[in-house]
């Protein structure tokens, strides 16, 4: 038995195969082709931080999936879309904060009265959170103007 630099104890007859194919200290290139050379044992850790890894945009509601290294360009090119998504996210947060002002009143077996307090300076249209009633989910949508 011999010891490899990686710490593994290997039979002499298997040492060549170990050093050329199995040793975790063997040099390896990043599988995502970022250009980094590292030891095979370090590849899984590198994959978590590699700039070429695929990530989802961090803007709430944006479902775009891109390379981490392209995130700055994505944020810049989608600024208008992201502002709209942030507005929707903020509106949803306000609705969830206002749940205390929402109440349900059962008037009969076929009607439910839902009441929301809506500020005058609200951005339109307004969509409520989902409400469970009569074994269904309901959402109130308010708009200004005529249908």
UniProtKB/TrEMBL annotation:
Residues 18-62 form the TRAF-type domain. Gene3D superfamilies: Zinc/RING finger domain, C3HC4 (zinc finger). A zinc finger (TRAF-type) spans 18-62. It comes from the Eukaryota. GO terms for molecular function: zinc ion binding. Keywords: Metal-binding, Zinc, Zinc-finger. This is TRAF-type domain-containing protein.
